[in-house]
Structures are given as C-alpha cells and as structure tokens.
Amino acid sequence: MKSLINTNSEKTIDLDREIDLERYVFLDLETTGFSCERDEIIEFGALTFEDNHFIEHNILIKPKSPIPLMISKINNIDDETVKNAKSIEEEFERIVKIISNKVIVAHNKDFDLRFLNANAKRLGYSEFDNLSYCTLKRAKKKLPRLKCHKLDFLAKHFKIPFDETQSHRATYDAWVLKELFLKMVF
Predict the structure, then answer these.
(1) How far is residue 145's CA from residue 147's CA, in Å, rounded to a whole number?
(2) Cα(4)–Cα(135) distance, rounded to whole angstroms?
(3) Which of 22, 62, 101, 186 makes an SS bond possible with 82, Cβ 3.0 to 4.6 Å?
(4) What is the pLDDT, as a whole number, of residue 74?
(5) pTM greater than the 0.85 cutoff
(6) What are the tens digits of pLDDT across the range 117-141?
C-alpha cells in the first residue's frame, strides 16, 4: 500500500485508490534565504483542483528587508517585483484558506512547512497539521541511485517539460511538482 505519512501524527492516506485531486494542494515557496527565523517568504505558489480544472494561486509578498541579490539571481524576484505586493501579515489568511483541509504536496516539504508554520505561529494562527507528501523524500527512497533529487533534475528524469527560465518561481514549480507527484505515485 502506498501512503502519505504526516510524520507529526502518523496520519496516512491510501494511494492505491483513485486520487481525488480536490483534496490536494501542490505548493511551493520562494524565500529570502534558508532560515525561517531570519528570512521571509516572498512568493507563495499553489495549485488546487476545482470543477475539473487546476486553479493557480500566486501571491507575491513584500518582505520587510530588501531581497538579497543572490536570491534575486536564483528566482528573478527582486525588490521591484514585490514593491506593490502586500505584507505577509496581509496575505497569510489567503494562504491559510488555500491550504486548509488539503493534503499538502511539496518538494522538500519540511522547508516549506517550517516557513509556513513559523509565520503561522508569529501571526497567531494554528500550525498546519495537514496530511502531507514530500516528493523529495519519495524520490530519494524510490530512486536512490539518482545522483540528484532536485526538482529540475527529477523533471528531466521523468520527461516532464521544464523551462529553466521559469524555475524557482513558486507557481511554475508547483505545476512541475504536480506532474512529478502524478508520475511518482502511479
């Protein structure tokens, strides 16, 4: 039996049955760095499935501090990109509504959930205890001989179209993540 496991509560979902995509949210974050204590979310991208089609959710977030040049070179998000965006305080409720009651699918979900939960705690929301699935962990387990398990590398391995110029943008990566998830679980 294939299953989704939330390591915090050991909740599982049987993946041998047909997947009801309306129960899932495929998400990715772009941040100003790797520390959920010091760095900030600057983009939330997600896909949900409703009325027989996927809906994109893209939220740019204006950080309190300038975006480091090194980060801008990776994700093409700079201070100009987010100058008219709202703060995380203004946007977090939207993020909560998108994620609520969904199975979270992410590549390196621990990273994304650390940032989401740090912000939830700081802003007075409950931490996310959703069921979740990590494509990175699954790939390492399922494909241990691959030299790399990054999203772009796995996309190429599974012959998922991948545009290097769009990578590291949250919504684009969520689309690739969705395709990767479907390839990995079937």
Answers:
(1) 6
(2) 11
(3) 62
(4) 96
(5) yes
(6) 999 999 999 999 999 999 999 999 9
**Calpha distance 25→99 (Å, rounded):** 6
First to last CA, the chain: 12
For residue 6, pLDDT over 90 is answered with no
What does the alpha-carbon distance between residue 20 and residue 161 come to, in Å, rounded to a whole number? Answer: 24
> Mean per-residue pLDDT for 22-43?
97
Domain coordinates of the chain in residue numbers? 22-185
Q: Can you spell out the DSSP letters for 2-51?
A: -EEE-TTT--EEETTSPP-GGGEEEEEEEESSS-TTT--EEEEEEEEEET
CATH architecture of 22-185: 2-Layer Sandwich (3.30)
Catalytically active residues are 168
Q: In 3D, which of 32, 46, 41 has the Cα closest to residue 173?
A: 46
Token pair 């990715």: residue: 28
